[in-house]
């Protein structure tokens, strides 16, 4: 059974896909255009739930027919884009890039792209996101994961609750619980909340709730208020598009703005409305809305490959992307999607095999071939291959949950081994993401000294006792809830276990110029250096009292831009960009922290300082590449191979801090 067609919803799909495309093209005014995905979520939740409800009421619903329709609706265009994206990747990507793409393709094949993007990219606006061709498939994974549980759940609720009012009440309760999960995740686990279904479920549940309430709500309002409410809904979506950005904590409560706006449009806008309804139901809006799904699939790979090839997306290139997206989408709709509808009368077995199993097997075969042949390295010069492999080797991926493990119960030493694999742990590495990026260095230095190390690191949580960290969020000063808690666990439970060395590393320059407080009062930038000095004195003292030698890694030079691919791109595309940092700029950035560190070494005779700049810099420059190997993964974090290479040079030219008496 099909529900009554509403062309204005297709028009709303047009709005959603276009603001997403304009956002990805960095069109001014569309900094929050990513909320188009949230518009899609609400529409999807509404339509799917309306279909299930309507079919159940007349006894025509079956789980097999539901999933048969989902395969017919999604799989043909999905696998078509996946195929051509894989073909382009095989032609354009370096071996390490192609292997990384193949991992994402493998996850995407089984609608699990969101898990891969969360783990590998780390955030929608994270490092490497702009050259990840399948990044956008995370949203389709969220939808399909939701629809693995929602139909059966809804049938159970309808069976036991029966009455529409009670059923709607339960859905609203689930919605509020899911919203709470989303808000908590947006604050505490931002990347996970952005990508994973539990933090997005409330958006689909808003749509589901509308399936049981939209008609009743519509009838309550007089005609003028209906028109005004629909226009207000559009204003909500436009406001989010104009005012949100990559810095907005999302989803959580912020996502309510575009979602409620979408709900108002679904409830109140009709095609015969004097303004908005007629626009959304117009031929242009409906036409683009009908191809919005393939348009969403096609647009991002085009942009990602342009970014990969360093083609600047100016007005004319952006316009070409839009035109190409529309042409490819129309061709996909006419040549792929519409013919696939012939399978609607086929059984679930035939549809599943033809529409999913066979293309999935081809996709898996392609991915396994890439892995088996190491990305087909003979396609490019070995120098390019070597550089790309370094750039894509990230410490957070290498070290797994040893980085970003549970705050109060980090993984144990048997799960997080660095250095020599032997009985007894000699070295403990603690700190934030910058400590994590030095795990490769500690691995090499510990191995050379015949020692075993244990790393437990947490982003934004350098080891400093007795203080709270604050940061600015949406113009407000917000306390980092886990900072003191994590460091109390380290001080009381981990450090006293008896290590020979405790290595403390982190973005100390960032903390020195940040916001710290030791008395619970509102922090200030002016007071932070003094607070940090007192905290570092107490921290080093705590390490010494545990019987360990305290070691502080001063930190690697930081750039004002992402330099990870700078030398690689110079070689690959014949560029001549400056990839190094003047030594003077490095010293100016580190001046305050360097002075504080000098005072610590004067205070504590046993304190050892590892200064990577001793091998990364000369008198004039600090380098982003040494011996033909790129060192960075972004503007301030080292890549894993770079970190290890620095250790080799440091041990040779400066000395191994773990090898002296």
Question: What is the compact description of this entry?
Answer:
The protein has 661 residues and is α/β, with parallel strands linked by helices. It folds into 2 domains: 31-368, no CATH class; 395-559 and 591-616 and 637-653, 3-Layer(aba) Sandwich (Rossmann fold), CATH 3.40.50. 60% of the residues lie in helices and 7% in strands.
Q: What is this structure's SSE topology?
A:
Elements (H helix, E strand, L loop, with lengths): L6 H18 L11 H22 L5 H30 L2 H15 L3 H8 L17 H24 L2 H25 L1 H6 L1 H15 L2 H7 L2 H21 L12 H13 L7 H5 L2 H8 L1 H17 L6 H26 L7 H25 L9 H10 L3 H4 L18 E3 L7 E5 L1 H5 L1 H10 L3 E6 L10 E6 L2 E4 L1 H14 L6 E5 L2 H5 L2 E3 L10 H18 L3 E5 L12 H8 L7 E2 H21 L4 E3 L2 H4 L4 E2 L2 E2 L2 E2 L9 H14 L8
Parallel strand pairs: 2-3, 2-6, 6-8, 8-10
Antiparallel strand pairs: 1-3, 4-5, 4-7, 9-11, 12-13
Features:
alpha/beta, globular, 661 residues, Rossmann fold, 28 helices, 7% strand, six-stranded mixed beta sheet
Structure overview:
This protein has 28 helices and 13 strands. The mean pLDDT is 92. It is of the alpha/beta class and 661 residues long. Strands 1-3-2-6-8-10 form a six-stranded mixed beta sheet. The longest helix is centred in the N-terminal third of the chain and has 30 residues, at 63-92. Its main location: membrane. Residues 412-651 form the SGNH domain. One of its GO terms (molecular function) is acyltransferase activity, transferring groups other than amino-acyl groups. It is a multi-pass membrane protein.
